[in-house]
Structure formats: structure tokens, C-alpha cells
Amino acid sequence: MRIDLHTHSTASDGTDTPAELVRNAAAAGLDVVALTDHDTTRGHAEAIAAVPEGLTLVTGAELSCRLDGVSMHMLAYLFDPAEPDLLAERELVRDDRVPRAKAMIARLNGLGVPVTWEQVARIAGDGSVGRPHIASALVELGVVPTVSDAFTPEWLSDGARAYVEKHETDPFDAIRLVKAAGGVTVFAHPAAAKRGSTVPESAIAELAAAGLDGIEVDHMDHDPATRDRLRGLAADVGLLTTGSSDYHGSRKTCVLGEYTTDPEIYGEITRRATGAFPVPGAGGHRA
Fold first, then answer.
1. What is the DSSP code (8-state) at residue 28?
2. Can you state the percent helix, strand and coil of the chain, rounding each to 5?
3. At 184, phi and psi to the nearest 5?
4. How far apart are CA 184 and CA 240, in angstroms?
5. 3-state secondary structure of 257
6. What's the pTM value of the predicted model, to 2 decimals?
7. Which of 149, 172, 234, 254 sits at a 20 to 30 Å CA gap from 85?
8. Of 278, 279, 286, nearest to 49 (Cα)?
């Protein structure tokens, strides 16, 4: 089985619609794909309706968190999307995205970059607006050559010249809320230092003690030595280890299935989940 547990659609900052994403996952030879848009489940219904035969969809979200001033992302799988406390927290994060984006645009304007809210809103479309959409605007303007090049101290990385904080969930609260909604939590790309500051590895042990289920180890932002170190840490504190592409369509260079999760780990995730269940495909055929 080929299992990719971290992808994004146009419901947040990917470029594939949810339906396109599941079709592309099947065409890439995946058996299981998780849709984990940022702080939203808006793409779930469309993806569920379009899952091709032979592919299984795992519903989820990537939650924006902050620990001791450091941003981090928490993958949440197979939770009840209607559970009121977790829904209210996701709405708090989502509602802060527009004023935050406008504040970042103002900072870029102050740096001489002629980006506009109208341009960023056009790029975001119906998705939850975020830094990747602003980064795409910088690419359109010729300020940087690629989206990744915008995530530097010069532009949009954590603490950068145009960076503005947004409401983010305490990760211990996120674990509690997702558990209460029947879901499973995995700390996304915990050592992705190229994105900015990372939480200390001692905090991973504390999160594990609080109920964190796993950490994403095999990821494009982790080199082989980092993966080995994280695997050892996970073994020490009893965490599951996953692998994922973090696919964003054409917005990033990663491809579906670039990194995958062991079927036994996937089985354990599904066994722990009680809020929702994987959706076997019936909406079409493999490309």
C-alpha cells in the first residue's frame, strides 16, 4: 500500500480542487490519501464525492498552533468536523487569516512591494488565505522566483520583515480538542528548520505525554540525519511515525506520494480514531 497522509487543496493553499486532488492521488498510484487543508474541512464533501474506486480518503485538517512563541502545525485525522469546541477553535484561527494577510500586505507595501489585497484574494479564490497566497503574489510580481524563496527572513518566514502573527492554538489544547472530537494528532514536519524556528525536541516528549499520537518524520524538509534522529525520539516516547508529501499542487515542488506512511502505522491511526472513518472510493475510476 502507498499512503500519503498530508495534502492540500484549493480549500486552503493548494492548487488542485478537492476533486482533482483525489483523482490525481489515484493517478499517482496511491492507495490512501489524507486531505489536510489548513484549519478547515470545507473540501471534505467535494473530495468524498469524487474519490475514485481503488483509493481511500482520510479526512483531516492541519491546525495552526503556537508553543512558546514558535509556530507549529498539528495534523488532525478522522475527527468529527461538527464537534462544537474544535469547530469554534478552527473558526477563530480562520477568521484571523484575512486581517493578518492584509497587515502583511501593508508591511510589504512599506518595503516597496506593490502587492494588493485584490491580487492575493484572486490567488486565494475560495481557499483560506495564507502566506503561500501572498508568496504567489510575490512570484507574480517578480520579487522572488518561487514560492519557497518568499519564505525567508527577508520576506515571509516567521519573524521576517513582512511577517505578522495570527491567532494560533496552543498545541496541548489542540491535542485535547482533537481527542474530544474522536481524532488522532500528528505533529507535522517538527524539524523543518528552513521554515523558521522549530520547537525544541524536549517539547515533543511533553506533547507525547499529553496524548500526541505521532510525528511526521519522512518529509521533504527533513534530511536523512534528521529523520533518523526523529525516529529515535519517537521510539523513546512511544509516538507513531508518518511520512507524507505535503502536496500543494503546482504551488510547491513536492509530488504526491513523494514520502509515504507504513501501512501498519496507518492501521493504528484508523484504530485509534472514533470521530470519522476512512472513505473508500466509489466516485469514479482510476485515471
1. T
2. 40, 15, 45
3. -125, 140
4. 11
5. coil
6. 0.87
7. 234
8. 279
